[in-house]
Amino acid sequence: MNKDLLLLQSQILKKITDNLCELLPQGEIYNISLNLKHCISNLPVIVQEYIQAEDRITRIRKAIQIQIALDECKEYLDFIALTRQSNVNHLMIELNKLVLQVQKSQIHNLNAEEAQVDLWNLN
């Protein structure tokens, strides 16, 4: 259930982002619409690979890729809001929901031994 919700939220975020990119000016100096669309385009695929990952290294690698895509998307949305090119409040809400869902998923995917090893590495 939790993993299905994560995938669904990534698909919703991609769809809303694609719709926003259609409304933004094309070919401007910073090319925001193309860059925003590019950074989020593979997110549902990466989330699906994260969900299906069987080993810890792959899960960590995919979690990092998800976080990078979300961070990049947030930077572009902040720029769009700052330059008042569009109202991105609804998209920021969806982005924050997905970030929280990713964090919950990462916590649930750790088993007791992995969590214990991670805590030892912190000390």
Largest sheet: none
* Broad CATH class: Mainly Alpha
Uncertain residue ranges: 115-120
CATH superfamily, called what? 23S rRNA-intervening sequence
Q: Report the CATH architecture.
A: Up-down Bundle
User: Roughly how many Å apart are the termini?
Assistant: 34 Å
Helix content: over 70%
Radius of gyration: 16 Å
Q: How many separate domains make up the residues?
A: 1
Element string (H = helix, E = strand): HHHHHH
CATH topology heading: de novo design (two linked rop proteins)
Average pLDDT over all residues: 79
The 3D shape can be described as elongated
Please provide the count of β strands.
Answer: 0
Number of helices: 6
Helix and strand content put the structural class at mainly alpha
Fraction of residues in β-strands: under 5%
